[in-house]
# Entry
Amino acid sequence: MREVAPQKNRMEKGGVQKIGRFSYSMKRLYDSRYLYLMILPVITYFFIFHYLPMYGLTIAFKDFNAYKGIMDSPWVGWKHFRAFFESHFAWRLVRNTILINLYDLVVGFPVPIVLALLINEVKGNSLKKSVQTIVYMPHFISVVVICGMLISFLSPSTGMINHLIEMFGGRPIHFLADPKWFRTIYILSGVWQSAGWGSIIYLAALSGIDIALYEAATVDGATEWQKIIHVTLPGILPTMIIMLILRMGSMFTVGFEKIMLLYSPLTYETADVISTYVYRKGILDANYSYTTAIGLFNSVINFIALLLFNNFSRKVSKTSLW
Amino acid sequence: MSSAKASKIKESSGERTFYFIVVLILVFVCIIVLYPLIHVVSVSFSSPYAVMANEVGILPKGFNTEGYHRVFANQDIWRSYKNTIFYTVVGTCINVALTAAGAYPLSRQDFYGRKLWTVYFTITMFFGGGMVPTYLLIQRLNLVDTFWVMILMGAVSTWNMVIMRTFFQNNIPMSLQEAAIIDGANDLRIFFRIVIPLSAPILAVMTLFYGVGHWNEFFNALIYLNDRARYPLQLILREILLQNTLNAKMAEGLGSAGEQEFIGESIRYATIVVATVPILMVYPFLQKYFVKGIMVGAIKG
# Structure
């Protein structure tokens, strides 16, 4: 009969092993055969679409030639990395990537938290549900539509924002052609789209806070505001930290789609980030090895940032991803 | 948080002010969220002249469905709509099936190699090949410009698999499964007869997540598809909305070039509405499911 509870070793009462370790492992493998049947397609999928491309990363160190294939392309070591860092692009790309992420962090990270706190304070159930329904909506709108809306609203001739400006006596601003405005537009529209959805996780954490703590605070005479600072915020602190760590893990990556839809050569100065550059030079210009090197550099520093921040957080707050 | 009822302490005016401010801010937030959407809808129904003159606020001015007529007459839009529906339906079925098939073994403590495979999947969340190596792989596999690439890319998301695994672990009692094992059932039967029927909420959530993902899919189509006949909705949208390619056919029949330009805005907004309304219609009904789903997955996962 099958064992359901796993045991590390099977020593019979007299200390005599009935079967060897290897056979034991084989038996356990056999017991799991149906589970393996189920999970095999998924394992295969991941191997093909996630792990095989990792092997393709080696072309970052080679001069990839499509005819020779990956194996036979000549090895060139750090040549592409050097080329990237010595080009005047590297600084601009990295700077834009980090700045956009930093502003997004400062502006966009607190908003879902504040929103969750506000929603949590609402007493009527129907008001609460209505607000939530409304606020989650933008998340489901595609990035193409969002950018389409942005382009229309920000149009210098027919856009509603410029219409507002003109009403107040100003001159219309050509927002999307001006590098100075790009980050603001990108980040604020991002907040508009994702703040509601992002608040879900905090609302979930809020529902996990012990009611008794609130009651104790009331007994102690705390006002709503004080309750928020002393009970609620500490209660969701672990969640906030985890979300922050995850955010840090993509500090050097900026989503490609929205930038690609909104930018233009006029705004490359502030808008061009690592991923869009890789797209232009790699996919469009087929500069494969060079851009793979850049992509690899990107992944590695992201990973390092994640590790560093995770360890830092573990030391400081005892909350961490692992 | 209705502690105000438990104690008989009357709300001070300070408390009431606080609450008033909270509600005020939330109402303001809702307005900010809703106004652009309502504006888009009402512009789409307005006369082009009113649009250009910026007279449209919340309500349409000069009710006019010309924009919609032209959108519906556009063959590209219909074809890409069909494509998107196909990709979404087929893709989502595969997604949910594979994700469940992957999540269930991971949820079983007695799955041999559980730790190994968990690490195997988790690594891909943090590290991967990247844009170019993946593109080269797809080329090698001859999947470029096929409908397969739209279905297979992103077939299983590790994040979703973790959420599902957590759901299985917390909501399907192991005792139930053990009883079935003792009765002689194998794991497949347990999965199909016990686990799936009990998993309706999480399956609904996953269907919504993956479904919306497919509907809004843009990046993969952009990179991997070349034949216009296979374009999903979002790519056609991009042409219309962002590249200002006012299809000559769409503006046909209009008198002056000025009128052509005017109708352009109405067409743009009508297109946005046509593309987004399906999702926004479906979403409120499924809202309670996915909020629960995230709560399950996020806290524990």
Notes: The radius of gyration of chain A is 27 Å. Chain A has a mean pLDDT of 84. Residues 95 and 309 of chain A are 20 Å apart (CA to CA).
